[in-house]
């Protein structure tokens, strides 16, 4: 089997998943967009969190061209991204009990805000406790996860629960257990993960839904422009000043 054929199969698999999410999660995406719009209109703040590769879709909606300026990354040192050595440390920290509480206690997150928690499996202590503790603070939580894991794996949290059990709203990424879309002769392990493609698209869809909802209410959503187009820096500078009390990625 040629590499080109496998590459095409991956695109087909990713497109199929995107179509499923578009059709089957449309209601949840719209509801998430409305929740973000409510938060913007009410003067609240928006945060996104993910651990390891699940941090990539969270980072994708923070301070970027075409994005909502009010989305902040809730960073956990050693967990968000792959900038620690060894890389396996991030996975180990995701299983540490109590870390989420310490992070939230020292973060700007407060009652009335929205926190988007992204976790493919939703089974590790960090995302589970992040959602639990945030809701205890009066924060509304949107979970982006694969419900297949909750159906076919065991939670690693002492409560036996998953991320999905501690959210105000859940969006199912439809990713199968193992996050590998392809198999082939001569390749012992399944390969070609699609969770980043699908979850990043989900996040952008939620932001688009929020922008549309705000516009429908007569509120011009604070969307960032590219700094590589004329006037982009000036536009963004105005937004950062106007909404400075709700933006934390510039301090």
Automatic annotation (TrEMBL):
This is UPF0309 protein ACFPP6_12830. Belongs to the UPF0309 family. The lineage of its organism: Bacteria, Bacillati, Actinomycetota, Actinomycetes, Kitasatosporales. Residues 36-219 form the SIS domain. PANTHER family: PHOSPHOHEPTOSE ISOMERASE, SEDOHEPTULOSE 7-PHOSPHATE ISOMERASE / DNAA INITIATOR-ASSOCIATING FACTOR FOR REPLICATION INITIATION. Gene3D superfamilies: Glucose-6-phosphate isomerase like protein, domain 1. Pfam families: SIS_2 (PF13580). It comes from Streptomyces aureoversilis.
